[in-house]
Structure to design on (466 residues):
């Protein structure tokens, strides 16, 4: 039976544990730790064939990674689960098999690795040789090192595992030729896990102005010392240091950037927190952990978004009216603007003859654009709607404006014009009445005129008897 059959038996054993929530434990079940073998189909990059470039099918051979006795939480569904047996492998062209003892290094996300096939996910697994930075002749003669990079599909966790194997100088097996390593009693390469670096957030999306936490964890075998933690940012061809930690001292190059408290850092948590995100924080973050002997890293993609603000109004008062939809302050670049026209009692109809302004970019990096449309209200008027769709929005932004028919616009303009003339006339008469007695040098109180008297320009009185 091959590895496919072994995984099929595992999925059948676990099938009764799947629930609607996506967890493997049934509701109310008590979960306990159990040590199991995690078996992963991998590719081994043969030494010396990729020349520092990317691996390809021509320099990769099939391999199998068996993480021995990894603790996972079990609700009872693993009762029929059996440990991996080399005898289950195909006798014809078997894969290069690495058996890795994980104690005492923790293997994070073991359940995600164990259940990946049953969850219809894939685990990308690549094994390659690892060379020490500072070589010691004795160590080189007695051991070899491999690094395994694991990635669960669908945005799942990513783990890098560094393995060490003993080399017997007198009994070297050749499988494949570039390995030149001894095989164990069952024909496998026996290794122990010395160091691992992981992240459960390989890709993140945050809104501008919010705070982001970039996860980076690690675990190492006793005897190794943590020497340095470094976070770097790569974006658009340039790189910069964000945060560095060395022997208890941290230094932030990006204002406000912090690591977890030192006690968590020493316990294996090197997560980075970035407050008040701007578009300049977007890019590829590299978390590099350096011990007294090894160095490994994880890569995290951080995407920063800015939601647009939309305003719909009149571009001018001419007939027919021109509507303009302003979309301001969005990021990233792609935005979709659609127009519809709806007459009273009718259904919205798409309008395709809108025009767009040139793209504008602010100093911060956000974009703005305008879309204009000549309204044709018809005899009954129409409602025009501008709808804006952007990746930062959960739902499109919709703004509408009513375009009145020409008759209503003419009547409304006439009423407005007449009202304006009336108000101006009242204002003029009021000013004249206020100025007239003042010019004659008398006030209403001083003349003491009765209603039957009038004031002449010569200041004489002409009164009529009642």
């Amino acid at each position: 039976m091959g590895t496919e059959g072994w995984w099929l038996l595992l999925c059948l054993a676990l099938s009764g544990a799947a629930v609607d929530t996506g967890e493997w434990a049934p509701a109310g079940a008590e979960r306990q730790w159990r040590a199991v073998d995690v078996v992963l189909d991998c590719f081994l990059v043969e030494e010396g064939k990729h020349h520092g470039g990317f691996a390809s099918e021509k320099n990769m051979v099939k391999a199998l990674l068996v993480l021995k006795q990894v603790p996972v939480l079990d609700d009872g569904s693993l009762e029929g689960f059996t440990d991996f047996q080399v005898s289950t492998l195909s006798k014809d062209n078997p894969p290069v098999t690495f058996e890795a003892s994980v104690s005492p290094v923790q293997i994070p996300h073991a359940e995600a690795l164990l259940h990946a096939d049953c969850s219809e996910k894939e685990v990308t697994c690549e094994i390659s040789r690892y060379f020490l930075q500072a070589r010691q002749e004795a160590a080189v003669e007695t051991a070899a090192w491999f690094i395994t990079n694991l990635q669960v599909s669908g945005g799942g966790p990513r783990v890098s595992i560094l393995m060490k194997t003993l080399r017997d100088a007198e009994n070297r097996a050749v499988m494949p030729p570039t390995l030149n390593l001894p095989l164990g009693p069952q024909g496998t390469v026996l290794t122990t896990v010395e160091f691992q670096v992981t992240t459960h957030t390989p890709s993140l999306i945050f809104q501008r102005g919010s705070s982001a936490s970039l996860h980076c964890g690690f675990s190492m075998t006793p005897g190794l010392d943590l020497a340095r933690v470094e976070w770097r940012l790569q974006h658009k061809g340039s790189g910069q240091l964000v945060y560095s930690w060395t022997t208890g001292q941290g230094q932030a190059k990006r204002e406000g950037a912090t690591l977890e408290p030192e006690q968590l850092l020493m316990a294996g948590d090197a997560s980075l927190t970035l407050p008040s995100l701007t578009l300049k924080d977007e890019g590829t973050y590299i978390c590099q952990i350096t011990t007294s002997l090894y160095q490994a890293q994880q890569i995290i993609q951080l995407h920063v978004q800015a939601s647009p603000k939309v305003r719909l109004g009149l571009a001018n008062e001419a007939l027919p009216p021109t509507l303009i939809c302003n979309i301001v302050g969005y990021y990233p670049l792609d935005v979709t603007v659609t127009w519809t026209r709806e007459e009273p009692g009718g259904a919205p109809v798409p309008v395709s003859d809108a025009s767009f302004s040139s793209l504008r970019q602010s100093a911060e990096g956000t974009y703005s654009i305008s879309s204009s449309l000549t309204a044709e209200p018809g005899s009954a008027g129409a409602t025009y709607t501008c709808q804006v769709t952007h990746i930062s929005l959960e739902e499109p932004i919709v703004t509408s404006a009513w375009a009145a028919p020409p008759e209503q616009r003419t009547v409304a303009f006439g009423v407005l014009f007449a009202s304006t003339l009336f108000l101006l006339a009242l204002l003029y008469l009021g000013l004249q009445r206020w100025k007239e007695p003042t010019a004659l040098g008398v006030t209403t109180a001083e003349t003491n005129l009765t209603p039957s008297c009038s004031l002449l320009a010569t200041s004489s009185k002409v009164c009529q008897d009642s």
User: Anything to note?
Assistant: The longest strand covers residues 60-74. The chain has a mean pLDDT of 79.
